[in-house]
Specification:
Length: 187
């Protein structure tokens, strides 16, 4: 009788173990390696052209012009309450004007990788988590005041003026037409 009882317990144990392992292997998900950061899961947002004044010795010395694009986590970006271009522009102004991360007046060589890393780190630090994964440079220029004046003297610059719009009235004439009254222009 004891042999029969031990055999019954052994059969129940084997049956339970086989059911347990078959359920575990059926529910086991295949190990999928995540795609590298540049091959899926991230979105690229093209930034706007941003003109940042370079201030040194209490005066504007020129303008730093840049257009940057950003790779970021699209799901996290959708949850932001501030639009991405506004957040980026504010971070650029804060870093380059407020904190003067780059001192253009004393630099002979521009550290592009350092600039990209600083902007990405400042954006992520401001959000409190990693949303921005890379900064892609489309355009970087520096125009000194002398460069701007030289272009204006050579005639490479056209200033258009328009007429002031008040109380919802449409201006007379074409939009962007030259105004005879400089006080009526809106620049």
């Amino acid at each position: 009788m004891i042999k029969l009882l031990i055999t019954g317990v052994w059969i129940c144990g084997v049956a339970l173990a086989s059911v347990y392992f078959s359920v575990q292997t059926a529910n086991k998900k295949d190990q999928v390696e995540p795609d590298p950061a540049m091959f899926g899961g991230l979105e690229t947002v093209r930034g706007e052209i941003t003109s940042i004044p370079v201030i040194s010795d209490g005066a504007v010395q020129g303008y730093f012009l840049t257009r940057l694009s950003y790779t970021l986590d699209g799901e996290k970006a959708k949850k932001l309450t501030i639009p991405v271009p506004d957040l980026v522009t504010d971070t650029l102004y804060t870093a380059l004007v407020g904190e003067q991360v780059i001192d253009f007046s004393r630099k002979k060589k521009f550290d592009l990788e350092g600039f990209k890393t600083q902007i990405k780190d400042k954006l992520n630090a401001r959000l409190g988590e990693v949303v921005f994964h890379d900064v892609i440079v489309e355009q970087i220029d520096f125009l000194s005041k002398a460069d701007i004046r030289s272009n204006m003297r050579r005639g490479n610059f056209t200033m258009k003026t328009g007429k002031a719009v008040t109380d919802g009235e449409e201006p007379a004439g074409e939009a962007g037409s030259e105004s005879a009254d400089p006080a009526a222009s809106t620049n």
